[in-house]
Design a protein that fits this description.
480 residues, alpha+beta, seven-stranded mixed sheet, three-stranded antiparallel sheet, globular
Length: 480
């Protein structure tokens, strides 16, 4: 379904390159106590690879696979709570009927750790089932969301040919063809409202001036906190309905990234498209609790997790665009509070203390990465680090969060799921993106579909499902 949606919004111009079947490696432990586990895509290979690596846990793996399949098949019920009228969703929730409709709603409010504890006591397998971190400990996050992320890669991992920027480049012409326009360097300053309190446009900054852009509908992809706390007039921010929604969620954890430029092609450097997820030990709940409680001064010496990826190895056009070069990206989680003292400073001019602090963290991550890939140590030509303040400036994330509102258990309570929908208490104002559905590209895309369905008063999923069926029949006829 994801590919069908992307083809529709880009008119089929986005070209996705399939990555290697071995798409992820999870590294647990340190030095001589290091264990490596490999994730493989494929309808049967996904589970078979896990069974080979955990031969004594086949029963637990089989049960997990059944639960994962069930979640994937029933997730449309989760979206249903956001599509049907709010009063109907609340009636189903308050009467308990929603839990008779599907067990996915109970799974959504059950922690990932609780389910895994029922399946196995093997902590390495717990880590493998929980390794796609996004800032929430497994004991505090929904089993459904973690499982959907794993299932997302079961049929394969893909990368846009030409890089991630191709997604925007190929969507923009479709918008323009329909009579729309895409503005850059025109930040929204506020949402315009008319006398009856309905949204009627936005004020954007053009140079030193403000320009009012009027529209019958305003759709915000800026997240619930920016939309309600930054862009709405104070008198609308104070509305009980707005404050009620804001009280249901909180900002997610920030991220710290290191962008590394390397001298050499992927063949010369011996790097592949496989991602690496590194954990100092296998108790992720304890790890996240301790890491989150660190003071600013303790961070650099106590980083317990890291993600390594090589975007250049995923894109077959990279070498033609950047001959003889490669790149590596490192990522870990980071609290906004660790960088808060520099929040009022100017980007690129935050001072020596800021630069020194962020590079102390960056150098630790680079050192850890070159332990795994020692051949890269003398090939580093460029390093740039990005903190939660970078996310705040470049992405407009209020507290440097990667994935919008926190993806904890509270967010996936049925009443919160039903209420956190595209329609807002402000007439003609709609929300889109990650805060409507869930994290990541796929989550944001579904947030957009839910928003479009709300604006058009039409369930677009029905049409997409029928289109997918039609395309499948056409492919079958061609192959016959």
């Amino acid at each position: 379904m994801l590919r069908v949606i992307l083809d529709q919004i880009s008119e089929g111009q986005l070209d996705f390159v399939p990555l290697e079947q071995h798409y992820d490696t999870i590294i647990i432990g340190e030095k001589e106590d290091t264990r490596l586990y490999h994730m493989y895509s494929g309808k049967t290979e996904f589970a078979e690879a896990l069974r080979r690596q955990f031969p004594e846990e086949t029963q637990a793996i089989d049960k997990f696979m059944k639960l994962m399949k069930h979640v994937a098949q029933k997730v449309h019920f989760y979206a249903m709570l956001k599509i049907v009228p709010l009063w109907m969703s609340m009636f189903l929730i308050q009467t308990g009927l929603v839990y008779w409709i599907s067990s996915i709603f109970k799974l959504a409010i059950t922690s990932h750790t609780d389910i895994l504890n029922q399946l196995t006591q093997n902590k390495d397998l717990h880590t493998v089932f929980s390794y796609l971190f996004y800032g929430v400990a497994p004991k505090d996050c929904s089993f459904v969301i973690n499982t959907l992320q794993l299932h997302h890669y079961k049929r394969g991992a893909w990368y846009p040919r030409g890089g991630a920027s191709e997604i925007a480049f190929n969507i923009i012409p479709v918008i323009q063809k329909a009579g729309g326009a895409v503005l850059v360097r025109a930040p929204v300053k506020r949402i315009l409202v008319n006398k009856d309190g309905s949204a009627c446009g936005v004020a954007v900054k053009k140079g030193q001036e403000e320009v009012n852009v009027y529209a019958p509908v305003v759709i915000s992809n800026a997240g619930i906190f920016n939309t309600f706390e930054k862009f709405l007039p104070p008198e609308l921010q104070a509305k009980p309905e707005i404050q009620s929604r804001l009280s249901m969620v909180k900002s997610g954890m920030g991220s710290f990234l290191v962008f590394v430029g390397l001298d050499g092609t992927k063949e010369e450097l011996g790097i592949k498209s496989t991602n690496f997820w590194m954990y100092k030990h296998n108790n992720l709940d304890e790890m996240m609790a301790r890491y989150s409680s660190l003071s600013k001064e303790e961070v650099a010496d106590n980083i317990p997790m890291m993600f390594i990826t090589f975007p250049s190895a995923k894109d077959p056009t990279f070498n033609s665009r950047h001959p003889g070069k490669s790149c590596m990206t490192l990522l870990t989680m980071a609290r906004y509070e660790w960088f808060e003292e520099w929040q009022d400073s100017q980007v690129k001019k935050r001072g020596d203390d800021y630069e020194s602090y962020k590079m102390s963290i960056a150098n630790v991550l680079i050192g850890w990465a070159t332990e795994i890939f020692p051949q890269l140590k003398d090939k580093i030509e460029f390093v740039e680090a990005a903190t939660p303040l970078s996310n705040q400036y470049y992405l407009g994330a209020p507290r440097g969060e990667m994935y919008g509102a926190e993806h904890d258990l509270e967010r996936f309570r049925t009443d919160v799921v039903a209420t956190m929908r595209s329609q807002t208490p402000i007439k003609n104002l709609y929300l889109s993106g990650q805060d409507v559905f869930c994290n990541g590209v796929a989550g944001a895309l579904h947030g957009g579909l839910l928003c479009a369905s709300a604006v058009l008063n039409c369930n677009l999923y029905i049409y997409l499902f029928l289109l997918k069926k039609q395309l499948k029949r056409e492919r079958a006829r061609k192959q016959a």
